[in-house]
């Protein structure tokens, strides 16, 4: 069984609000583009209202809720996601030891088949990009690993010292900084990269999609639900949607 984990919570003072519609659209995009093995979609959230019943919801834990992003207080803080590496938490989510876990952000457009991406068998696979000081870092928007494995990402994290340790080593962001510090130089950890994974602001804004692209991430200020962004890249609305019959059922 593959467990696809989505996240939705409100961060005080953050510029963007994520909604149940974003969760439902993500679930619909996954259903259209993944037919390989049995899977379930779950959402860890502080407000499950309006989320379609095809998505199983769990309450968001309070760990690290008041921690600021070590790269800047104006940036989103996602340290809470590190608890997904905790075996006890995995068990509470109905995930058995050894089963595959995928975490994916909501500000995403799925534009092609996910079968090949989710078939990767390495110990950890993350969205790998070149960092400012490192050849490879992992972006927290998308990663996959086995339940019960790599729990050191959780157990070794000290909220008082770990963020600064990762920043000093040249890794930036919140949870992605720590994951990169712990995993990016390991030979048993692998990465997805361009053109299978694309960055909207850096690689495909106002451009045709590259051949073989499966996912586009909208990290940064512009999101796929912004009308001006949809207007500049027509392929967004061709993919970021709920098919009409399902939309009618969700709204019934």
Biggest sheet overview: 7 strands, mixed
- What would you call the shape? globular
For the biggest β-sheet, the strand order reads: 3-2-1-4-7-6-8
Structural class: alpha/beta
Over the alpha carbons, how many angstroms does the gyration radius reach? Answer: 17 Å
CATH topology: Spore Coat Polysaccharide Biosynthesis Protein SpsA, Chain A
Strand content: 15-25%
Q: How would you classify the quaternary structure?
A: single chain
The named CATH superfamily: Spore Coat Polysaccharide Biosynthesis Protein SpsA, Chain A
Mean pLDDT: 92
Structure annotation, total helices: 10
| Element pattern in H and E | EHEEHEEHEEHHHEEHEHHH
Task: Give the name of the CATH architecture.
Answer: Alpha-Beta Complex
Structure notes:
With 252 residues, the protein is an alpha/beta fold. It has one domain (2-251): Alpha-Beta Complex (Spore Coat Polysaccharide Biosynthesis Protein SpsA, Chain A), CATH 3.90.550. The protein is 27% helix and 21% strand. The protein contains 10 helices and 10 strands. The protein has helices at residues 20-33, 87-92, 115-118, 152-155, 162-168, 175-183, 200-204, 227-232, 235-239, 244-251; strands at 2-8, 39-45, 55-59, 100-104, 108-110, 124-129, 137-146, 189-192, 197-199, 215-217. The strands form 2 sheets. Strands 3-2-1-4-7-6-8 form a 7-stranded mixed β-sheet, with helices on both faces. Strands 5-10-9 form a 3-stranded mixed β-sheet. A hairpin with a 7-residue loop joins strand 6 and strand 7. Helix 5 (162-168) packs across helix 6 (175-183). The longest helix has 14 residues, at 20-33. The two termini are 30 Å apart.
């Amino acid at each position: 069984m593959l467990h696809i984990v989505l996240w939705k919570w409100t961060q005080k003072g953050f510029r963007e609000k994520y909604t149940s519609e974003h969760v439902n659209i993500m679930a619909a995009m996954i259903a259209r583009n993944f037919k390989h093995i049995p899977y379930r979609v779950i959402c860890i959230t502080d407000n499950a209202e309006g989320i379609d019943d095809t998505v199983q919801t769990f309450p968001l834990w309070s760990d690290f809720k008041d921690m600021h992003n070590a790269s800047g207080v104006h940036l989103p803080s996602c340290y809470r996601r590190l608890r997904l590496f905790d075996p006890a938490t995995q068990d509470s989510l109905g995930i058995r030891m050894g089963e595959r876990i995928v975490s994916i952000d909501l500000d995403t457009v799925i534009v092609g088949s996910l079968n090949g991406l989710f078939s990767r068998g390495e110990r950890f696979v993350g969205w790998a990009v070149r960092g400012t000081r490192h050849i490879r870092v992992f972006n927290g928007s998308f990663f996959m690993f086995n339940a019960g494995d790599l729990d050191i990402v959780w157990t070794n994290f000290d909220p008082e010292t770990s963020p600064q340790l990762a920043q000093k080593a040249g890794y930036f962001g919140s949870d992605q900084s720590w994951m990169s510090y712990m995993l990016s130089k390991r030979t048993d950890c692998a990465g997805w990269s361009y053109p299978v994974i694309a960055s909207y602001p850096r690689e495909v804004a106002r451009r045709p999609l590259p051949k073989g692209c499966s996912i586009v991430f909208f990290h940064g200020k512009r999101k796929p639900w912004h009308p001006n962004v949809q207007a500049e890249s027509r392929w967004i609305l061709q993919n970021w949607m709920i098919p009409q019959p399902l939309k009618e059922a969700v709204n019934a």
